[in-house]
Specification:
Strand order of the largest sheet of chain A: 1-2-3-5-4
Number of strands of chain A: 5
Largest interface: A-B, 19 and 15 residues
Oligomer: heterodimer
Order of helices and strands of chain A: HHHHHHHHHHEHEEHHEE
Order of helices and strands of chain B: EHEHEHEHEH
Largest sheet of chain A: 5 strands, mixed
Strand content of chain B: 15-25%
Helix content of chain B: 40-55%
Helix content of chain A: 55-70%
Strand content of chain A: 5-15%
Structural class of chain A: alpha+beta
Shape of chain A: elongated
Radius of gyration of chain A: 37 Å
Number of strands of chain B: 5
Chain lengths: 420, 124
């Protein structure tokens, strides 16, 4: 099953069952076929002595038995030696038809049943399709069992126990097949769920990326575009004054330009830093959080403390997630909490990083999931999505009048993407 | 002599208001009667000052320029409204004209272009 799931490529737009389901054909699983072959061969090996007793050794081998035994052995060898999927499928399919027929004919022969009931076994041979194969297996084995069971009424008294053995073996074989089928269905369900989650996360990721772009575009419009436009007007002002010969006024206007330009460069630098802080790449998470929280605290009159306990630097994608979670958390505190302090703690725990931000603000009635949006807590929803996209978790604790604490957990394992 | 166009500039960005005011004050064809930092202030000043033309910023917080234009245009049909914006998207131009604007000036245009657009709109 594991081999089948690795080899199958999920086709875009298809669900797992549509793509991988084809590969869950029981004929495609070599181990499954080998087990079936082994069971049938064992059945044959058991049935003959059980059915015939020691007399078998003194009698010529019946033709029916020879045909069935050779066919089963051939399929067993075929699945063992051959690796081509097409041939395995043929071998496996043959085993479904031949195996139960072998049991049925052997039972017919050794059970002493003078009845055409065995011919009903041909009916499942014509069933096709994935589910049809399961029905085929179950029907064949159950019908064999029923037939043998019914045959106890016809069998000689001393053959009843032999028939009972065949009946029990057939039921066991059916049960084993059925259990395998359900195991595969459960595995398929797990795979489908993982595929759906992956798709959902991809959609979320694209949406977040577009939202971020929209935000940056708005910031550029509201900031640098306006400032540069104003500078353009001021320069035009200087030009017109110069053209008119009012040099003194032109000089005064130029004097004002330089400090304004400096302020705008600082503002642009701050925007750039918010987008991608250089200190995060150069010096790591602890310094980046310390710098950010200090600057943020000064701007918003908030006493921020930072405690980072990491043994070594994390993967840059994880560091960025943690940095953004703290950023968004502090923005939330500044916007809604009416707090005077914010304590940030980042520490390693159990295969991941725990990020806690606690404020002493007014608190609120904490909800879960979509209720964040309904209550207008878009920042919290954004943090939840960010943590979950990184494979982590997020929750909020808050008590009215006693502050709020956000808890995020981000796993530190980052799977490597294979080159296409 | 043609009278100067009485102009009211509306923009939420203080630097724009200041720099544009200083620039347009150099042109005798334009009489800058006031500036407003938002739509609500604009409504008051339009009623008090009765300008010939309003140079309206498109993108403002709370009430944007198109909404303000939609509010003012029917009440003051003789007054011209020229949109002042960083966007040059045709869809936005259409939206502004539908709201009642009579002209369009891209932010950062040269003063000659701004002045001629204002004069053309005011005298139309």
């Amino acid at each position: 099953m594991e081999q089948c799931s690795h080899d199958a490529d999920i086709e875009p737009g298809n669900d797992c069952e549509g793509t991988i389901g084809r590969h869950l054909d029981i004929n495609d699983d070599p181990s499954m076929m080998l087990r079936r072959m082994g069971a049938l061969c064992a059945a044959l090996a058991v049935f003959v002595p059980v059915g015939r007793g020691l007399e078998f050794l003194e009698q010529p081998v019946p033709a029916w038995y020879l045909v069935a035994a050779v066919a089963c052995a051939a399929t067993f060898l075929g699945s063992s030696l051959l690796s081509h999927r097409g041939l395995l499928r043929v071998a496996g399919t043959a085993s479904i038809w031949v195996g139960p027929l072998a049991i049925a004919t052997l039972a017919y022969y050794t059970g002493g049943i003078e009845s055409p009931c065995a011919w009903f076994l041909l009916i499942p041979v014509f069933w096709i399709g994935r589910d049809g194969q399961l029905r085929q297996i179950l029907a064949v084995n159950v019908m064999v069992a029923l037939m043998l069971g019914a045959s106890t009424f016809d069998a000689e008294p001393d053959e009843t126990w032999r028939v009972a053995v065949i009946l029990a073996f057939s039921i066991c074989l059916s049960s084993s097949e059925y259990k395998d089928y359900h195991r595969r269905q459960r595995a398929l369900a797990v795979l489908q769920s993982a595929h759906d989650t992956k798709r959902s996360l991809l959609v979320q990721s694209v949406r977040s990326s577009e939202n971020e772009r929209r935000r940056v575009a708005a910031e550029i419009h509201d900031g640098p575009i306006q400032d540069l436009t104003a500078f353009g007007y001021l320069l035009e002002h200087v030009r017109v004054l110069t053209e008119r010969g009012d040099v003194e006024a032109a000089n005064d206007a130029i004097q004002e330009l330089s400090p304004q330009l400096q302020r705008n460069v600082e503002a642009l630098r701050a925007t750039m830093s918010e987008l991608r802080p250089p200190v995060l790449d150069e010096q790591g998470l602890a310094d980046a959080l310390s710098d950010y929280s200090s600057a943020f605290g000064r701007r918003h009159d908030l006493d921020c403390t930072v405690k980072v306990q990491l043994r070594k630097r994390l993967d840059e994608s994880i560091e960025l997630v943690v940095y953004r979670l703290v950023q968004e958390s502090l923005v939330n505190v500044a916007k809604h909490a009416h707090a005077t302090t914010a304590a940030i703690v980042v520490h390693e725990d159990n295969g991941g990083v725990r990020v806690t931000v606690q404020d002493n603000g007014r608190g609120f009635v904490a909800h879960e999931g979509h209720e964040y949006i309904a209550e207008g807590h878009f920042g919290l929803m954004g943090m939840k999505e960010r943590a979950e996209m990184a494979g982590g978790t997020f929750r909020v604790e808050s008590v009215l009048g006693r502050g709020t604490t956000t808890h995020a957990f981000v796993p530190t394992f980052v799977p490597k993407l294979e080159a296409a | 002599m043609t009278e100067a166009v009485r102009l009211l500039i509306v923009d939420d960005e203080p630097m724009i208001l200041s720099s544009l005011s200083r620039l347009l004050e150099l042109y005798p064809e334009i009489d800058l009667v006031g500036t407003a930092a938002g739509a609500e202030e604009a409504y008051l000043l339009v009623e008090q000052l009765a300008p010939d033309l309003v140079l309206m910023d498109m993108r403002m917080p709370l009430v944007d320029g198109i909404t303000a234009t939609r509010h003012l245009a029917p009440q003051y049909p003789a007054m011209a409204i020229v949109m002042h914006t960083a966007y040059s998207d045709p869809a936005i131009v259409d939206k502004a004209l539908e709201a009642g604007a009579t002209g369009f000036v891209i932010k950062g245009s040269g003063p000659d272009n701004i002045v001629s657009t204002i004069l053309d709109a005011a005298r139309a």
